[in-house]
Automatic annotation (TrEMBL), chains A, B:
The keyword DNA-binding applies. Keywords: DNA-binding, Transcription, Transcription regulation. The keyword S-adenosyl-L-methionine does not apply. Pfam families: FCD, GntR. Gene3D superfamilies: GntR ligand-binding domain-like, Winged helix-like DNA-binding domain superfamily/Winged helix DNA-binding domain. Residues 6-73 form the HTH gntR-type domain. This is DNA-binding GntR family transcriptional regulator. SUPFAM superfamilies: GntR ligand-binding domain-like, Winged helix' DNA-binding domain. GO terms for molecular function: DNA binding. It comes from the Bacteria.
DNA sequence: ACTATGAATTCTGAATACAAAAGACAGGAG
DNA sequence: CTCCTGTCTTTTGTATTCAGAATTCATAGT
């Protein structure tokens, strides 16, 4: 197997995003570069490179002289990000090969149906949801678009741990995914795109209340 | 007046993007960090920070051990970027306040009509075009979306100098802008969104032939 | 008691120094 | 002659150091 030869900044970024998923960092808190670098066992240089990348993605904020902080969460931003990702995924779906979409539709349907069956922890559910959306847009030839979606979704990760809850309305989410898959199977892409948008809007509304007011 | 207190990496990024507009850098060429840092009169550290930011925007590519290079241009990528920006601007328009859109519509119309009148150099035309689009989406409340559009458009800058030509079909472009403005004036946003998309698609097709095959 | 001022501390922003990988090139074996 | 290999050079990736800004805390003055 090929060994990991990626630059440190990427590994650091992944590690930080992972911690973000786990809610290790409170949103809005400042980052102490020396402390974090020591904790990760790297020097400040690649750490700062990772931080700059993440600031570009909107995960972090930076102000002159005060360094980086985890961008505070807000309903407004959550809504904005959801709108953007919904629009981008809809665009990706619109730009996909219809034949390929019909081909993967059964798998999408199967995944959606498996959704509520398994009693699982939050992060398993999230991973499953991510995989579903990844497969959905996997037929899009626009590589830049795929990259962009990934990047914007990184910003949404800050909200992941907030959404952890035992009364997650999984059935609703699964049903909406099923509907998208079914529409793709019949080849009605325009309707499927609309259903996908609805899924994002509805999902957003469901989660909105769990985000602190401001 | 407040003096410039932005971090060096931002100033460097702007300088590099400006040079890109002027076509100072050939696409696909490697960047020598020490040479470029010396030329700019800064150290490698903030330069690399700027390069990493630009790599995140897709303006540059980086490979392990080989550093950064200006991403090569291609019709495929140009098409991809245009599709994305078209989708994002359409989304921005869709998320704007209709009243505000009606309010700025006359100004948009005036700008579009002034378009072909002035005999101007290429970069003046480009600036004018940018201003028109900026005004168009200025009513969008989704700040993240606006930032994202700006970021993706940075990637399009690599194509700006390629598109310089004396037989630019300005009238066509202006006419399409007029149509968008007129539709906004009547309050028919859905149609305006469609016209905007058409504008991007048509503009893309017009430019496509000027990009080297691969 | 409260505010303002200034020193001390802490941390970021930038520069320099070091290490390691990639590329170039020459020499030798087949 | 060709291909491989080992060394040398160049350039990047990372660490460390230096300088300056922001914050904190204490103290003096009102």
């Amino acid at each position: 197997m090929p060994i990991d030869r990626r630059p440190l900044r990427e590994q650091i970024r992944e590690e930080l995003l992972g911690r973000l998923d786990r809610g290790d960092f409170a949103a809005g808190t400042d980052i102490n570069e020396v402390a974090l670098a020591a904790e990760l066992g790297v020097s400040r240089t690649p750490l700062r490179e990772a931080l700059i990348t993440m600031a570009g993605e909107g995960v972090l904020e930076s102000t002159q002289g005060r360094g980086f902080r985890f961008a505070p969460v807000s309903r407004k931003e959550f809504r904005e990000l959801c709108e953007i990702v919904a629009g981008l995924e809809a665009l990706a779906l619109d730009r996909s090969d219809p034949a390929y979409l019909r081909e993967i539709a059964p798998e999408l349907l199967r995944m959606a149906r498996d959704f509520p069956d398994r009693i699982a922890e939050q992060h398993v559910i999230e991973r499953h949801d991510d995989e579903w959306h990844d497969l959905l847009v996997s037929g899009c030839r626009n590589e830049r678009l795929i990259d962009l979606i990934t990047s914007v979704k990184a910003g949404l990760r800050r909200y992941a741990h907030l959404l952890a809850s035992d009364d997650t309305p999984l059935e609703r989410e699964a049903a909406e995914h099923c509907r998208v898959a079914e529409l793709l199977m019949t080849g009605d892409r325009a309707e499927a795109v609309q259903a996908l948008r609805d899924n994002w809007v509805n999902g957003m509304e469901r989660m909105m209340s769990r985000i602190p007011a401001s």
